Predict the structure.
Amino acid sequence: MTIVLNGASNTLTGLATAGAGIPGSEVVAAGALSNGGIIQVKSVHFNSGVASQSHPAQNSSQSWWEYDNANLRIGITPTAASNKILVMGHVSVGAAVSTALSFRIYRRLGSGTGAMVGSNTATNGTAYLCFGSTLIDQTNQTYTQPFTYLDPPANASDEHVYYLGFNHNSSQTRDIKINTSGDDSSDYACERATSGITLMEVVA
């Protein structure tokens, strides 16, 4: 069947759809897509401010700052448990004092408790288990870390909510900052950047 996009009437014909006959509800039916097809996309882009957390000295307890905030949090409800959720994004961080920052991807179901996904799970004593890390060696710069992870959903009934968590490796309290450099001065040498997360449900 030929696919026709009519810009004058804002219609797309020639695809198998669900919700036909209900204005505004027509979507591509999952059965019309082969493996690798994208069923739905959700995205959040944090470009309207900054966030900061004074995080305590670290030890074997490994406390994490879970930034479960609408600025950098996005949810998606899979249409089938057999599909995958492609998690992509970037996060820009800074620190007031040179230190190593680690981050995790967290997922929670509905209003439940978040748990890390995609991080290294091979324990080695008290070594941090994380998705990625960066060394902050300039307090007037932001450091942008990309991430990509293909997540198997837990089910097709709960909203899967994704957000990020942060940690540092210092024995002293450190300020962890999102979207800004460590000192965040009103100066041409300092930076304010963006962070974002995009979710895609992929037919598998």
The chain has no helices and 16 strands. The two ends are 23 Å apart (CA to CA). Residues 60 and 127 are 8 Å apart (CA to CA).
